Amino acid sequence: MGLKSLFRKHTAAGHDDKLGEPVEYNGYTIRPAPRKQGSHFHTAGVITKEYPDGAKEQHFIRADTHSSWDDACAHAVMKARQIIDQQGERLFDQTSR
């Protein structure tokens, strides 16, 4: 392991590329995935739904920033629920993007 990876892990408090715990909501799975920028974390995550022909997923990122990874995870779950409530099945429709 090189010096760069040690530094990166330290500066990101061990949360680089880490997904939060999955949350089930109305048949969808929400995985918070905050993105570190400077000393803050952007709200981001992945919404997944299983279908007979396989899983579909949609990634999202918002401009909202948070001082902690945990706060960003909580906000990502709230935003994902809002996205699901507003878009439902259209979330995976290629024409809705």
Task: Please outline the helices and strands.
Elements: H1 3-11, E1 23-25, E2 28-32, E3 35-37, E4 40-51, E5 54-66, H2 69-87
Antiparallel strand pairs: 1-2, 2-4, 3-4, 4-5
* Gyration radius, in Å: 15 Å
Kindly, what is the distance between the CA atoms of the first and last residues, rounded to a whole number of angstroms? 40 Å
Structural class: alpha+beta
Helix tally equals: 2
**In the CATH hierarchy, what is the class?**
Alpha Beta
- Percent in strands: 35-45%
Q: pLDDT below 50 for ≥5 consecutive residues: which ranges? A: 1-15
H and E order = HEEEEEH
Total number of domains: 1
Fraction of residues in H or I helices: 25-40%
Give me the count of strands: 5
The residue-averaged pLDDT reads 83
The coarse silhouette is: elongated
CATH architecture: 2-Layer Sandwich
